[in-house]
Each structure stands twice: as structure tokens, then as C-alpha cells.
Amino acid sequence: MEDCCRSCMPCLSRLWNWIWPEFHYPNVPVNDNGTSTTRRPAEIRTISGDISVPSPKKRPVQLYAALFDFEARSEEELTVKEGDKLSVIEKRGDYVLAKKLTGSLESGLVPANYVALLQDEFAKHKWYYGNINRGKAETLLLASQNQDGSFLVRISESHSDEYTVSARSEGKVYHFRIQRSSIGAYFVSDKLSFGTLGELISYYQNNSRSLGVPLVLPCAQQRELFDMEPWERPREEFQLHKKLGEGHFGAVWEATWTTENRKVAIKMLKQEDTKQDEFVKEVQALKSLHHPKLIQLLALCSRGEPVYIVTELMTKGSLKAYLTSPEGQVLKSAHLIYMGSQVAEGMAYLEDRHIVHRDLAARNILVADDLVCKVADFGLARIIKDSVYTASRNTKIPVRWTAPEAALHQRFSVKSDVWSFGVLLYEMMSRGKMPYDALSNQEVYQKIITGYRMPPPPSCPKAIYSIMTECWQADAASRPYFKELCVQLCTRTYEFNMVS
Questions:
Q1: Claim to verify: residue 387 and residue 305 sit in the same structural domain
Q2: Based on the domain organization, do 356 and 450 belong to the same domain?
Q3: CATH number at residue 160
Q4: Is the pTM of this model over 0.85?
Q5: How far apart are CA 63 and CA 79, in angstroms?
Q6: Which of 119, 264, 284, 307 is the most buried (most CB within 10 A)?
Q7: Considering all CA atoms of the chain, what is the largest pairwise distance in Å, rounded to the nearest integer?
Q8: Count of CB atoms situated within 10 Å of the CB of 195
Q9: What is the pLDDT of residue 284?
Q10: Which is catalytic among the residues 69, 84, 359, 377?
Q11: Shared-domain flag, residues 474 and 354
């Protein structure tokens, strides 16, 4: 993914200025050699051990980290490097007003999707239970499946960027406040501080006398519902306005988040799709992924029916609807290819994490101003341990977008998503035409397995149709990777427009 971004992002920036110079699109930070400095998020380096710990702040702030490098383009913006620790003061549209917590302590605007709350990082630990209260922690730890030495970590009820260790010992539950220093260190005792919460817990697991109670095993109670607590909001905070569409997994509505005074999109899961395990998988996928070309999770309403999954609202709606709109119909090939390159960038991020979308199509790409595109509805994807996900026989399959090995044998992989991306390119270059529009679903099956491939749409550049046919190779292993498609679309599109 790093090589992909370095190769294609400078070209995207130059291409955009050539195609549509009056549009504003965020600049991409580059090095002296012209390559992008955008990288995948890396672990933040920390220190631990005996250090002098000042008194905690009276008004502690939530700790955020920069996911990508961002270069300020005006006096109002703030230059940050990947991993910088930040305090987010307030949300301003698509940006946040942030202040650095180390170094210069400067403040300014940063794109909202370039930062993430660090408490998300703790969800990988079995001992982390998120935003549950003292009473719930005691109920869980005193349950019959737990014994002395069971423990959990929860967000402090009085300080949102601090935590509490709740541990069971001799049939009782004891609570220890984990405070934060002015430099972001974690400590229970002012004699010892740690660079991360994980380091603190590990230390006290190995040195129980220092805490006074043993920390042996994480609380045994299932924690899926409690993982959602930091995102859980009352249903009354959202006012529904209009239905935007409906897919395989539920309807999508435009709504207002009244307490935040912002427009949002709400996905309502159908009753038959709200089984606990499936819902948890969707939320966990959304929570763990952060990329400018993926739709951002904002909140949840998981208590009651239907379940709300609240995400950012894209002003132009789905790519499918946008392509058939008057504005979409006048787009040039270069505009469409630019949009396709953004989809490839988002999919390359999922590919790098072995995540299979399974329903990549124009209806699941959302469009905002300035032709910004983001991949949506990837929450029902599966994080797979090996390279292939095998679906059950009753899985709903969008036939016209599905690779033959997935349609016939229910074998989904990153490479089956690549096949779907080829069909998505066809949708884009045909300005929203239905793939295989003259054929029934059964006829599509039969034609594909006998080697039939759709002809190029009218006025489709040869280089782009060539990419489609690469995506539609019968042998899945022979299809390109998304990181390769990202580079191809950027490079070939730029060359195409320079000579056209």
C-alpha cells in the first residue's frame, strides 16, 4: 500500500489540476523527490519506566493520533506527522481544530479523517471493555465464570481520557484509577509511568504486589456489546429526513444528528440481518479501519429495532445515482477515471488488511463535492485468516458483479473483489448502464463461464478497457492487485489526457 500511494498520489494531484482546475481538492504532502509522504499508520513509539510524573491536568483531554502526514496549506491549518499526539478541541465541518500535545504545542485545522481517537487502539485487548460503568464492571467480574484474579479495564466515568482497572480479589472487586500525565503517560502510582496502557497492564500482571491485587486473566464475560459503548448514542438524537436507498443489508436514510448539528447517513439493518454475531462483525470492521477513501463510522444505536449505524453523509449520494444524474452525464472520461482511481486506493487499503468487500459496485461507492469518492458498505466484509473466504449457500450474491469462482463455488477473495472492480469501471465508463443489461441473471452465469466478456462501452479509452479485461481473467491469481490498479489508473489516465 505504501508503494501504491507513493507512486500514484502525485499523479492524481497533477491530473486533478489538469482536468478541473477550478475544483478544490486537498493537496497531498510530498517529499523533495516528488513522492507522497502518506503512509500506512504505524505504531506510535513510546517510552516506559521510571520517569518524573507531573500532576494530572484538571481538565484532561481525549488523546488522538494523526493517521497520516498532513502539510498545512494556510495559516489556519496545522502540519502534523503520522503518529503525532493531538488534542481535538472541536469539529468544524470536515476538519477538526486540533492542538499538538508534544513539541511546539501548536494548534490548527486538520482533516477529520486524518486523526483517530487512541482509545480505539485498545479494542484488540481482551481486557478492554470500553465505556461501561462501575456497577456493570462489578456485575461482570463477580459472575460465576470469573474467579479471583479476573480483571478488566474501562474508561473512567469522571475523566474521558483516563481509565480504571477493575479487579476481583477475595470475592470483592477493587478499582484503581489510571491517570494521564501532561505528556500523555499512564500511571496508577506516581512512582511508575508507562508510554501505553498495554505496557501498564503488562507490568502489573507480572508485578501483582505493586498493585495489591493480582491481575491474572481478563474478565471471561462476552464483551462485544460493551465494545460498542463509546459509539452508542440515544436514538432520539437523530431526526430522519429522506430515504436515500436500500441494499441487500438494509435501508439508508439522510438524517440530522441534532446534538452535533450535522447531517449524517443512517443505515438501518433489517431484522433478519441483526443477529448479534453479524452485527458485531460489521461494527468491528468499521471501527478498526481508517482511510480517507473509506466511509467513516460516527455513532451507533444498537438498543432496540431497527439498529442504526451512523456514518458521514456524502452530499452527492451513491455513485450509481450520480452517474445517471445530469451532472454525472456530462463528466468526461478523465473525470470518471479519476474517481475510479480513488476507489482503487480505498480497496488497496482493504486488500492490504486481507479484507474482502464481497459487494463492490457503483451503488456502494458514495460521492461528495469535488468528485471525492469513498467505499461504503464494507462493514459486512470478513477479515479472513487465509486468502479465501467461503460463503454459506444461502448468501445473497449480486450476480452481475460477482466473479465466476464466487458465484459458482462461493469462494470470495480479494481477487474476486478485483473482478467486481472491473464491472464497476464498466458502470462508470457507460455512465451508469446496467452490466449485461440484455441478459438475465442465469444467462450472465452461463455466458461468463463460457468465456464471454462485456464489450467496451462507447467512447471508453482502450487503456481503461484493457484494465477491465485484466480484472475479468478467469484465473483469479492472474488478476492484478488493487495497489497495481491504483498505479495503472493514475499513470494511464494522466498519459491519456496529455495526448487527448
A1: no
A2: yes
A3: 3.30.505.10
A4: no
A5: 17
A6: 307
A7: 78
A8: 18
A9: 60
A10: 359
A11: yes
457 residue type, one letter: P
Looking at the structure, do residues 413 and 331 belong to the same domain, yes or no?
yes
> Are residue 216 and residue 266 in the same domain, yes or no?
no
Nearest to 146 by CA among 175, 168, 170: 168
Which CATH number is 263's domain given?
Answer: 3.30.200.20
Enter the DSSP assignment of 75: T
Q: What are phi and psi of 252, to 5 degrees?
A: -120, 130
Q: Rounded CA gap, 216 and 208, in Å?
A: 9
Query: 453 with 474: CB under 8 angstroms?
Result: no
Residue 198, number of CB atoms within 10 A of its CB: 18
* Cα 109 to chain centroid, rounded: 21
- Cα distance between residue 240 and residue 257, in whole Å: 9
Q: Pick from 312, 333, 360: which residue ends a domain?
A: 312
> Could you report the per-residue pLDDT of 362-394, keeping only the tens digit for each?
998 999 999 999 998 775 444 232 333 344 444
Last residue of a domain, one of 226, 250, 275: 226
Using omega within 30 degrees of 0 as the cis cutoff, is the peptide bond preceding 21 cis?
no
Do 332 and 284 lie in one domain? The reply is no
What amino acid occupies position 28?
A: V
Domain range spanning residue 422?
Answer: 318-499
219-271 tens-digit pLDDT: 976 544 444 456 778 888 999 999 887 765 568 899 999 998 999 999 887 54
Question: Is the same domain home to 457 and 322?
Answer: yes
- Examine the residue annotation and report whether 161 is marked as an active-site residue of this protein: no
**Residue 47: predicted pLDDT:** 33
**From CA 185, how far away is CA 41, in angstroms rounded?**
21
Distance CA 236, CA 241 (A): 14
Residues 243 and 345 in one domain: no
